[in-house]
Model the fold of this input.
Amino acid sequence: MSLLDAATKARENAYAPYSRFKVGAALRTPSGNVYVGVNAENVAYPEGTCAEAGAIAAMCAGGDYKIAELLVISDSPTPVTPCGGCRQKIAEFAGPDVAVTMVNLQGVTSVVTVADLLPGSFNAGHMANVDANGV
Ligand code: THU
Done:
């Protein structure tokens, strides 16, 4: 199944009663496994989670930890871009050259790399001075 088909189908099940903005995400691992996610909102608004986060959690639950490509779809005038937090979440599991495809329901598509989505990302190297005791 294509990432577009998988994300489009999943998106219909998004739980977005507060924003009414349904988002679907699908990712493929290097081994070819596909995982999907949707946004799952909450009456305590900040507790809602994004579609990308859901797909990443599903991937981990499936025992996969590497993203080869990712697609996100919503009913937006221009292709939806992952929020800042999701950019960091994607970067945890995807190399800088991994393609992130953003598409709306009309098929308007934009493709960017992870490096372009999150330049200067925080990474483990920034914590190099922390010693074994964590101080
Ligand atoms: N949302 C996503 O799921 N992914 C994105 O890339 C952008 C925003 C969700 C969060 C919230 O449920 C709704 O869209 C409106 O912000």
Remarks:
- Residues 16, 19, 21, 23, 39, 41, 48, 50-52, 72, 80, 82-83, 86 surround tetrahydrodeoxyuridine (CB under 6 Å).
- The longest helix spans residues 51-61.
- The chain has a mean pLDDT of 96.
- The two ends are 47 Å apart (CA to CA).
